[in-house]
Amino acid sequence: MTESKDIWVFIEQEEGHISDVSLELLAKGQELAQTLESQVWGLLCGHQIEELGESAIQCGADRVLVVDHPELTLYRTLPYARVAIDLIRQHQPYIFLIGATPLGRDLAPRIASAVQVGLTADCTDLQIGDYTSKKEKQEYKNLLYQIRPAFGGNIIATIVNPKTRPQMATVRPGVMQANTPDASRKGEIEKFDPSFESSDFALEVLSREIREPSVNLKDAPVIVAAGGGVQGADEFHLVEELAHILGGEVGASRAAVDAGLVSREHQIGQTGTTVRPRLYIAAGISGAIQHSTGMDKSNKIIAINTDPDAPIFKVAHYKIVGDVAEVLPLLIRTLREKAK
Fold first, then answer.
1. Where are the alpha helices (DSSP H) in the chain?
2. Could you count the other beta carbons within 10 Å of the beta carbon of residue 205?
3. Burial of 282 (0-12, 13-18, 19+ CB in 10 A)
4. CB-count exposure of residue 52 (10 Å: 0-12, 13-18, 19+)
5. Three-state DSSP state, 56
6. Which of 202, 179, 251 is nearest to 78 (CA)?
7. What is the pLDDT confidence band of residue 198, given thresholds at 50, 70 and 90?
8. Per CATH, is 222-339 categorized as 3.40.50.1220?
9. For residue 123, what are the CA distances in angstroms to 9, 99, 127, 173?
């Protein structure tokens, strides 16, 4: 029997809207499927969500399994896990990908434990490649390279699961590029009627509150980010002023957040948000890998730092060696004069 090479993407949706990371994974899945000469399957769970299947196809899915049931209206671990586990056992996909969102981080380990496979969390890249076991002297072809920062971001690890299927990974939002929807794409939509047990409903949702984020870093065209080199509220106000003039958002490294200059919603990097704006200005940021992995795909990067050997300069397109307290007022003054 020939092993299936199909790539499955769990399509996370909220109130009829597919999450950005799921669209990003459909695009990446399409790229991986071309290498494997296979198909991308989407697994879509919820209630009254059938029309989202077409959206998934337009963004890269070849086939979408739609599981529409009133008990799936709101996310609960056990019913969602039951659906995914049953379908994985039935179809035996080669790869199963989930976004590293709060939902994905809850659901993925439950699935992996049930089907007894490995799981790599918070990947920043995925590739297809070969692996030779030094112990067994055996070569495995076309495995999923699950790439993620490790040891506090000091190294980039490539992890493989040569023997278990599916190969499972959660992927950080924003590290991959979604496709532009193509209305001409064709695919199949298959409905699946789930079978639940009473134990799947041990948890009941009595009420739900949603708090909208105060900042939208992912979609910001311009980000001015503060780092540990920004000293105190006065210098941070310069960062805010520059972001306002440029019509952008304020970001921050972990050092600036830990210093109390701004809330954690503004944090960019391995433990924050991954961004890729048209313009990224790093003010007083050293550029350690924990931060740079979250912004090095920006179209243009301007870095300001007093240390000429700061790691941020390795990813910057334009480098300014200087103190943010002196450089930012000059930039602000120049921009204001040009706006007159």
1. 20-36, 52-58, 77-91, 102-115, 232-245, 254-258, 289-292, 324-339
2. 9
3. buried
4. buried
5. helix
6. 202
7. very high
8. yes
9. 14, 9, 11, 9
pLDDT digits (tens, 9 = 90+) for 126-154: 999 999 988 888 999 999 999 998 876 67
Q: Angle at the Cα of 282 (from 228 to 124), degrees rounded to 5?
A: 95
pLDDT in tens, 33-75: 999 999 999 999 999 998 999 999 999 999 999 999 999 999 9
Give this prediction's pTM: 0.89
Nearest by Cα to 65 from 74, 53, 81? 53
**7-201 CATH pick, 3.40.50.970, 3.90.550.10, 3.30.450.90, 3.40.50.620:** 3.40.50.620
Closest CA to 307 of 331, 286, 329: 286
Helices 102-115 and 77-91 cross at an angle (nearest 10°) of 50
Geometric angle at alpha carbon 39, from 34 and 43, rounded to 5° = 135
Report the percent of the chain where pLDDT is more than 70.
Answer: 99
Average of pLDDT values for 300-328? 97
Pairing of strands 249-252, 40-46: unpaired
Read off the tokens for 66. Answer: 């739609």
